[in-house]
Amino acid sequence: MRNLLADDSTVIERLLDHIDRKTTDLSEGVWREPVENYTSRERFAAEIASVFHRTPTPFCPSAALPEAGSYVARDASLTPIIAVRGQDGQVRAFRNACRHRGVRLAEGTGCRNAFTCRYHAWTYGLDGALRGVPHEYGFPGLDKSAHGLVPLATTEKHGMVFVTQEAGGADNEDDVIPDYFGPGWRLVSMSEQDFDFNWKIFVDGLLEGYHIRSTHAETFYPRQYDNVTVVETFGRNCRVSYPYRTIEKLRDVPPAERRARGALTQLNLLFPNVAVATFPSHMTMAVLEPRAVERTRLVTYTLSDRAESDMTVKIGQDFVTAGTAEDREMASATQHGLRSGANDVLTFGLFEGANRHFHCGLAEALGET
Q1: In the prediction, which pLDDT does 1 show?
Q2: Cβ atoms of residues 255 and 268 within 8 Å
Q3: Distance in Å from the first CA to the final CA of the chain
Q4: Could you give the percent of the chain with pLDDT greater than 90?
Q5: Quick one: which H or E segment has residue 76?
Q6: Where does 233-352 have alpha helices with state H?
Q7: Residue 174: predicted pLDDT
Q8: CA proximity to 205, closest of 323, 111, 53, 56
């Protein structure tokens, strides 16, 4: 696998240099994103059809499917999907709809030996095959082999389950995505909540540290630096490293022995809408599911490699929850402000290079100039 991301020692050295010189990574130029791209129904429909449905996208972490029969059922880019681990250990994803009348077969998470529709009790195996039809004689000529759940292209890699809804989309540069959740990582919690903002607005907030002091004055800023980041790109994906003030303790540590964990948060945006973030006690995989032009569902998986009794995980979760609540507040305020007509474009400056990379990649995937 090609590794286009710098190692811990290199990233830490770059951050320490920025701290000393009071600088940060700068992009190649300013990016101006049309406001209509956050408000247009046509643009939203194009993003769903041409990007979300055609891009291999992380659906859930592997740890959410720990055993045979474990499943996660939720909407992904407006499509009801169910991912389940089979008796053979393989993860498969299907369109979450009975082949009789289209009713969803499952909601949320759980573990089952089979999926039975609550409407007429058609039953499907973990492999999606139609196993049982009550009073089957009422369906003469029914070919059960042709009425299994509709499968979706599914791959388990990097500690996550990737699902592609339609063929023919852009490559997500799989060979440069690192492994995030290896053996020992367990699912701590999963949450879903809807918010009134375009999905890209929240992405914009995740990808820059220019707002740390002003937005997170009592949460992130006391423990982090304002406007100090290292930005790296790999394919259409990117990683932004945000240092904690504890990084100062690494100045006297030999470079080869420096480790990122506990010294910085690294926000990995996996194109187009999944953010994998590292924290001292845990990691999160956040999926920004577009529900409408100005409606987004935030699906958050929290994982840890520490013991369930380790209270630092709960403390770390509370810290992150407080800061992300402020990010959501700013995202809602941004969406509301766009309705004022004050701006035709949103301007991303040199400090916001990851934003530039994201919007450029999205425009390319849509075939825009």
Answers
A1: 42
A2: no
A3: 31
A4: 93
A5: strand 70-76
A6: 311-338
A7: 59
A8: 323
| Separation CA 157–CA 154 (nearest Å) | 10
Q: Are the beta carbons of 169 and 51 closer than 8 angstroms?
A: yes
- Rounded Cα distance between 93 and 83, Å, is 4
Q: Write out the H or E segment, with its range, that includes residue 288.
A: strand 283-292
Q: Scan for tokens 């075939």, then name that residue.
A: 367
Residues 6+ apart with CB under 8 A from 222: none
Amino acid at 74: R
Q: Write the CA distances from 358 to 59, 142, 230, 233, integer angstroms.
A: 19, 48, 15, 10
Residue bearing tokens 């998986």: 301
Quick one: tokens of 275?
């953010």
- Quote the percentage of the chain above a pLDDT of 70: 97
The dihedral formed by the CA atoms of 110, 115, 116 and 117, expressed in degrees to the nearest 10: 80
Best CA proximity match to 163, nearest among 56, 315, 45: 56
Rounded Cα distance, 91 and 358, in Å = 29
pLDDT in tens, 107-152: 999 999 999 999 999 999 999 999 999 999 999 999 999 999 999 9
Whole-angstrom Cα distance, residue 132 to residue 100?
12
DSSP annotation of 169 reads -
CA proximity to 265, closest of 319, 329, 191 = 319
**211 in Cβ contact with 205 (< 8 Å):** yes
Q: Among the residues of the chain, which ranges form H helices?
A: 8-21, 36-39, 41-46, 199-206, 212-215, 311-338, 353-365
Q: How many helices (H) and strands (E) does the chain have?
A: 7, 19
Helix, strand, coil abundance in the chain, percent, nearest 5: 30, 30, 40
Return the structure tokens found at 264: 């910085």
Sign of CA dihedral 14, 16, 17, 21: positive
CA 57 to each of CA 238, 275, 330: distance values in angstroms, whole numbers, following the listed order: 15, 11, 26
Structure token digits, residue 345: 């474009």
